[in-house]
Amino acid sequence: MDTSSPSVLIAGMGVAGLAIARLLRKDGWQTTVVERAASPRMGGQPVDVRGPALDVADQMGILGGLRAVRTRVRGMSVVDSNGVELERNTDWTLGTGALESPDIEVLRDDIMLLLRGGDGYNSEEIFGDSVTGLEQDTNGVEVSFEKSSSRRFDLVIGADGLHSKVRLAAFGDNRRYVRHMGQYLAVFTCPNFMGLDHWQNWYRSEDSNYLAFPVRDNSALRAGIWFNSDEISRDGFSAEDQKHLTANRMAGIGGHVPRLMQEMLQADDFYFSPIAQVHMDNYSNGRVVLLGDACYCASPFSGQGTSLALIGAHILASELRAKERDFGEAFRSYESRMRPFVKINQEIVGLDRADPGYLEAFNKAKSAIVI
User: Fold this and answer.
1) Domain boundary pick from 220, 252, 270
2) pLDDT (tens digit per residue) in 19-30
3) How far apart, in whole angstroms, are the C-alpha atoms of residue 280 and residue 294?
4) Burial, 57: exposed, middle or buried (Cβ in 10 Å; 0-12, 13-18, 19+)?
5) Number of domains within the chain
6) 168 and 227 share a domain?
7) What is the per-residue DSSP string for 86-129?
8) Domain carrying residue 170
9) What CATH number does residue 173 fall under?
10) CA-to-CA distance for 82 and 76, rounded, in angstroms?
11) Which helix (H) or strand (E) segment is 216 a member of?
12) Is a pLDDT exceeding 90 seen at residue 77?
């Protein structure tokens, strides 16, 4: 490897991809980021930066920015199928967790802007494309793309999420690693027709749920809807199909839900994904390594996806630096350090949040690593 200016392709422009690009660029790497979307994807649910991930954000120079744009939630109401309040809580909310906590909740849009902004990022970007093949030899990786001509890199990092194309090319059939958890999640933005003022509304049932919360100083509403479902084939399953499936699963619920479904059908930032986890036997294969959800998705219900991404990026970059870019040793150390942390954070998803011991277990999980 050319130690003067090694090159790395990073697939995926989510939190994990932007974080590792920023960290490796600082260490002198030539960083190229490829993103399958035509532009940076906005929207999505709020994300949380917790425990040691706050230290990572501080070291990256974005902690002050995160604090400036953090969400300001006063509490949460649990409502019935007609939108009538059943109970309220001003200590804890489903989306944010404990309100009196040093942890920071921000909109996904805002952390993306912070990671991609400033001189620290400065990476080549390729939009509207994705990895289709990887050919490794002793000197590098020849990468084939769906649209662009093939190019050669010293290393490839797959940070391209639950349905990772890098994982598919380097490790084979994704179905071996992705464990569907029996639910799907839809997220979108609409006008704040509920009139919520820094307040969350949560409707819950055995089959379907929604969480609605105001954003941008109460000017808009972001809604998350999740419902039980067997695994659905992604082939030919368009965004319109996803919207109509979601609307059908919420049919018959009263209160604000009919209006919410109308708004969803018109939303241009609609996001839809299975609730799933990723369990890898190995984090790397030769010169290819996985990061974030592509490697160890804990599911949105863990509340730890963003922290896992930031901490994983920090550890991978620090190991490449410490091992003087000996990628084999660096990848092994990265996996060794991350695997116990990943395990405990994936396991908390199976715990009942209403259990009195849940908060203690969650706090243990979020802090179960030294960076």
Assistant:
1) 270
2) 999 999 999 999
3) 9
4) buried
5) 2
6) no
7) EEEESSEETTTEESSSS-EEE-HHHHHHHHHSSTTT--EEEES-
8) 7-42+107-177+279-366
9) 3.50.50.60
10) 17
11) none
12) yes
